[in-house]
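To: structure desk
From: M.T.
Subject: fold request, one chain
Message: Could you run this one when you get a chance? Sequence is below, nothing fancy, just the single chain.
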Amino acid sequence: MLLSTVILLILAFVSLLISACTLRVVWQQFHLHQQCKSHLLHVSCAKQECQLLIKQQAQLLETQVQLEKTIDITTSTVRSLHIGIAAIPFGILEAIPVTRQTTVVVRRTHDLISHMVYSSISIATKTTGKVIRKGIDISHRKNIIDQQ
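Reply: Done. Structure tokens follow.
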């Protein structure tokens, strides 16, 4: 009888030990599961942020290109209007024999300066556009690399 009581006590103790170890493993698995869920949520948020960043930068690039085109069209329009309006008094002054030679020189100077100014605006707009696009592209790549 005493032997069977001792065996039962040993079996109960071993069973208790196995239960405690099982509980410990279950607890660890629960915490690992929670950590995995947290990491997955973090990765999902990072992915969504990256997708939003890509979308915003694409919109920014598109807006920049449209702005550059608008400035170029506006500059060309203003140039044409300017030359057209300036042609009126120059035409009148060139029609007068006394002022013709001076007016021709002044008109050529005016047209040359106008051409230089409007060309400079166009070059500055295109150069600025390239720099901005390159900056957005570099920023875009850096943010994607940082997200990874």
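Reply (cont.): The chain has a mean pLDDT of 90. Let me know if you need anything else for the meeting.
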